[in-house]
Amino acid sequence: MYELSLISFFALCLVSFIGVPHGSFDGAVAALLGYKSKKQFLLFIFLYTIISLAVVVFWIYFPIYALLIFIFMSIVHFGLCDWSFLNTRNYKWLITLTHGMNIIFGIIFFHNEETFKIFSFLSNENFYFFQNYLYIAYIIFFLLAITYLYHSLVEKKMRWGIVEMIVILAIVSQVDPLTGFALYFCFVHTAKHIKSILKNTNKYLDNKNFVLKSTAIFTLLTWVGGCAAIFYLNNNFSFSESFIKTIFIGLAALTLPHMTLIDFFYRRKFN
What we know:
11 helices
């Protein structure tokens, strides 16, 4: 049984209405990458949908592995976004892993019990077992942070990264884990991503209406799918449980195709 507090509920609403729609720009990204004809765009939508559904099926049958993979993907995806935003080609994986681990393991460090309660609920397993191995992640992060600090003495842009990571840790230490995640996801990750996409769509796409229409359509479809999932899950779970499962399993389902598109294709062309 997992019940959301009022502030956690509003935090997940932020994720739903601000964070999740940032992936709806993937239609515009596909156009930037050359998927402009009707046939090409329909193929893109088909592949995107199939991958997302495959993630949901995988989560249903192998929830604990799906959650672990989702955590790892989040670290890499968040970190690559921060690396790209710092606008430096140096120390790519150092910046990526340090920034990605900062938000994920920062939340876990400051809210260990509550976070693992959420993990256990999402995975349908006793996830507390992995607490025994957290020290490995903390050691890795400490070594990365020290290396990051050392290289920032030369690479001035990395100093902004240090300031950002400290501010993020200060914020997540003062709020519950879902609120901390929501604030980062909506106002750091999403803001950076949308700024990058709009910059390039304004520069390279002539059909600005397509960007607005495709984003609006994808957003509405995501919301409709989310509402349907909550309605279905509500037969076996409370509303709070249905909401949190829909948000995070939905994020996982969307992250794999979104991350593939952004981190393996978009960044190669526009970074």
